[in-house]
Amino acid sequence: MRTKIELIKLAEQMPKTELHLHIEGTFEPELMFKIANRNQIQLPYQSIEELKAAYQFNNLQDFLNIYYQGMAVLLTENDFYDLTMAYLEKVHSQNVVHTEIFFDPQGHLERDIPFDVQINGISKALEDAKVKWGMSYRLIMSFLRHLSEESAFATLNLAKPFLDKIDAVGLDSSELNHPPEKFARVFQECRELGLKITAHAGEEGPPEYIWQALDCLEVDRIDHGNRALEDTQLTAEIQKRKLTLTVCPLSNLKLCVVDTMEHHPIQKMLQVNLNATVNSDDPAYFGGYMNENYKALIEDSNLTETELYQLAKNAFEGAWLPTSDKALYIAELDKIFHQ
Questions:
Q1: Could you list the active site residues?
Q2: Residue 102 pLDDT greater than 80, yes or no
Q3: Torsion of CA 219, 146, 113, 186, to 10 degrees
Q4: What is the pLDDT of residue 94?
Q5: Which residue from 113, 134, 21, 100 is spatially nearest to 71, judged by alpha carbons?
Q6: Contacts (Cβ under 8 Å, ≥6 apart) of 240
Q7: How far apart are CA 221 and CA 225, in angstroms?
Q8: Which residues of 141-158 are buried (b: 16+ CB within 10 A; e: fewer)?
Q9: Which stretches within the chain are classed as H helix?
Q10: Strand pairing of 96-103 and 244-247?
């Protein structure tokens, strides 16, 4: 039986995929200040240290207030490229071999940053990482749920000339009082366009929001999904549909969704046969990327080697990749665990 130190090393060495990552949430303070200076934008913080000190949140909304503030320095295609490439370099160093990235176009469109500026900068970085390291990727356009259905439709129309670069659509931002059913018609059109569907549900919102994600949006995947455990009928339905849950341990801790990592529900999810996975969500704000999330789980819970393997395998199986690619990645994972 491996020690916790050995399990942490195993988690670091194993190939990983990340399925729940907001590119705007990877904005490290150092890069934020660098781009702010480049664009001659004054941040409301005097130093990197003062900005880092502000990363203390009581709930999702506290975080979102700073998140949108940080986005405000992104103006050019080069800015979006630099932000994306900084994330890709970081996770490449942590043995992430495939990543599925959210971006929030409405947060930039509201600031008059054209859609093409955003997506071209992000896409070029993703393509460069593919060439440099063989890292595969999918790009997910997310709708902001605190905005209107009309705004979501307008954004979808702007995205249509770029659908060759977009693989899926998601739903994020303030969950409470913004149920998935609000966007049922938008997601129906997305499905008709051949896009995959995911949605944040059951992070702070009730199990009912997860039901709506299933029945109103017809999701292919659920982001977070923590509160599904409160409803046995719901967990049975998620099992039946073989849906992957993209769970974010450090995010849940930082936003007070859980009180301690020891009480995180991810092991319970595995025990009731839910396809839970580990992801970093907004790593610059929540204290860590993929390795740090696995490390926190291993250190502060009784996560076993079998569970560690299952979490990593679930992520490859839940990725929007061809079956042959999944098999290759899982074979690499098996090698690490059985060496």
A1: 203
A2: yes
A3: 40
A4: 98
A5: 113
A6: none
A7: 10
A8: bbbbbebeeebbeebbeb
A9: 4-13, 29-38, 48-53, 60-71, 77-92, 105-109, 115-133, 149-159, 184-192, 207-215, 232-241, 249-254, 266-271, 283-286, 290-300, 305-318, 323-338
A10: unpaired
Q: Which residue type occupies 107? A: G
Please, where are the H alpha helices in 255-301? 266-271, 283-286, 290-300
Query: What letter does residue 153 receive in the DSSP assignment?
Result: H
Distance of CA 319 to the CA centre of its chain: 12
Please report where in the chains the tokens 């659509």 appear, as a residue: 169
Q: What is the pLDDT of residues 5-48, one digit of tens each?
A: 999 999 999 999 999 999 999 999 999 999 999 999 998 888 99
Q: Are 84 and 103 in contact (CB under 8 A)?
A: no
In whole angstroms, how far apart are CA 283 and each of 166, 199, 286?
23, 19, 5
| Nearest to 285, CA basis, from 6, 37, 87 | 87
- For residue 94, what are its two tokens? 């942590």
> What pTM did the predictor assign?
0.96
The β-bridge partners of 276 are 245
Q: Which two tokens stand for residue 322?
A: 């061809």
Long-range contacts of 234-243 (CB under 8 A, 24+ apart): 234/207, 234/210, 235/272, 235/274, 237/211, 238/210, 238/214, 238/274, 239/272, 239/273, 239/274, 241/214, 242/275, 243/214, 243/219, 243/275
Phi, psi dihedral angles at 272 (to 5 degrees) = -100, 20
Name, in order, each residue with C-beta under 8 angstroms of 262's C-beta and a sequence gap of 6 or more: 300, 301
Instruction: For residue 91, give the nearest of 132, 55, 119 by alpha carbon.
Output: 132
What are the CA-CA distances from residue 234 to residues 173, 208, 210, 247 (Å)? 23, 9, 8, 17
Tell me the average pLDDT across 126-153: 98
Which residue from 185, 217, 190, 186 is spatially nearest to 200, judged by alpha carbons? Answer: 217
* Residue 339 clears pLDDT 80, i.e. is over it: no
